[in-house]
Amino acid sequence: MKRTILILGLFVFGAVFFQSCKDDSLTAEEAKAGIDNADKELKSLVMSFEDGDAYATFKKFTDYSKRKIAKETNNEEWMDTLLDKLEEVIDFDQMQSEFENENRFYFDRYLGIYTWDIENKKWNKESSDHIELIFPSEENLDSNDIKFTFSSYSDENIILEGESYWAPVSLHAKIEQNGTLLASIDLNNIDFDTDLFYLYKQIDISLFVNPIKINYFYDNRSPVNFYTSFDISDGVNTVGTVIDLYTLHELSEDFTEQDFKDVS
Q1: Distance between CA 4 and CA 226 in Å, rounded?
Q2: Measured between alpha carbons, how far is 123 from 148 in angstroms, rounded to an integer?
Q3: Would you give the distance in Å from CA 164 to the centre of its chain?
Q4: So what's the pLDDT on residue 35?
Q5: What's the per-residue H, E or C state across the chain?
Q6: Cα torsion angle, 175, 173, 133, 102, sign
Q7: What is the pLDDT of residues 201-258, one digit of tens each?
Q8: 133: closest CA among 156, 150, 155?
Q9: 126-181 pLDDT, tens per residue?
Q10: Of 174, 200, 201, 171, which is closest to residue 188 (Cα–Cα)?
Q11: Short-list 251, 253, 245, CA closest to 14
Q12: Is the peptide bond between 168 and the residue preceding it cis, with omega within 30 degrees of 0?
């Protein structure tokens, strides 16, 4: 089966480590200071996440689920009602069948704005060019404060080992609470080439979980040049890496560290 860019990434980081070990220009004190500084920034990022709006809201859902399990309540509880009623306006059985039989998600078939009617305990649907769910984050709220927006989606048919797959190449979705962005995913582009050993020509993706943002970019610039960047930030602290890799020849399944020409 074709290897993914994950395997290539492991070799890249191995090569970076190998090159770093040979670098005599960095003193032990400088190396330790760099590691300590990165460690402090990572700890700051974790603290920022735990203090953020997304963590607080998600924790409420988690705590509610724990209480629900502890009480051994029945299926008519608030969260179950939301999900059960949603099945009346979205055909999840059809969606599952499409996944299993066609390996595809038909975004256009589920377009609409789905709003939870708190008083009548049902979902109302309006026509739209995207998918949107509006509902309360807690059982006793008198208004809907959560909005999930799935604004766009596109896919591409690829053939791997004789099997057909519909793989996402772009999508944009987000979750907001009272207008505050809690989380989002922006898959800006995935460019496939199934004739390549490493399958991907480009990946461009951003994730946000308030207040943490993660960016990942990969570009196969030529058969022997691979570029990737990764960073994570809370708006104050940023930790990341940029790698530009050259190989002696186009990669194949039996490549080793000896096949690397240069990495920075």
Answers
A1: 14
A2: 14
A3: 23
A4: 58
A5: CCCCHHHHHHHHHHHHHHHHHCCCCCCHHHHHHHHHHHHHHHHHHHHHHHCCHHHHHHHHHHHHHHHHHHHCCCCCCHHHHHHHHHCCCCCHHHHHHHHHHHCCCCHHHHCEEEEEECCCCEEEEECCCCEEEEECCCCCCCCCCEEEEEEEEEEEEEEECCEEEEEEEEEEEEEEECCEEEEEEEEEEEEECCCCCCCEEEEEEEEEECCEEEEEEEEEEECCEEEEEEEEECCCCEEEEEEEEEECCCCCCCCCHHHEEEEC
A6: negative
A7: 999 999 998 888 899 999 999 888 989 998 888 888 888 888 898 988 887 777 777 7
A8: 150
A9: 999 999 999 998 888 899 999 999 999 999 998 887 888 899 999 999 999 999 99
A10: 171
A11: 245
A12: no
Q: Cβ of 123: how many Cβ atoms within 10 Å?
A: 20
SS (H, E, C) 127-183: CCCCEEEEECCCCCCCCCCEEEEEEEEEEEEEEECCEEEEEEEEEEEEEEECCEEEE
Q: Report the b/e string of 1-28 with b at 16+ CB within 10 A.
A: eeeebeebbebbeebbeeeeeeeeeeee
Task: Quote the CA–CA distance of 114 and 194 in Å, as a whole number.
Answer: 38
Task: Find the length of the chain.
Answer: 264
Average of pLDDT values for 67-88?
A: 67
